[in-house]
Amino acid sequence: MHTQKHFYTAVSVIVEYVATNHNPNALTENRKIEQDLGLDMGTLVLMRWIKPIQGHMAGQCTTHLIAWFQSMGATSCVIWNEIVIAGKRAWER
After folding, report:
1. CB 3.0–4.6 Å: which of 1, 5, 10, 92 could bond 68 by disulfide?
2. Based on the structure, what is the number of domains in the chain?
3. Is 50 part of a structural domain of the chain?
4. What is the pLDDT of residues 32-75, one digit of tens each?
5. Per the confidence metrics, is the pTM higher than 0.85?
């Protein structure tokens, strides 16, 4: 039996001024972001802080992260629509 592997190129977006209380590894939050943007489940592939959490200053409230999406269309949707992460509007580019 031959197993077929599916490969895709994820497209990244920088998301600025995200509340530091957000957990980029929380699948429930990622699914909520997809739902709010009208994207299919699983379109948001991965999120991570640009600077590791250990490098954040004491008392820092916001920081930037990188989000990877499955397609250019999903990435465009994120850029053109408002993305809300941890209850706060974030800016993407």
Report:
1. 10
2. 1
3. yes
4. 999 999 999 999 999 999 988 777 788 888 889 999 999 888 88
5. no
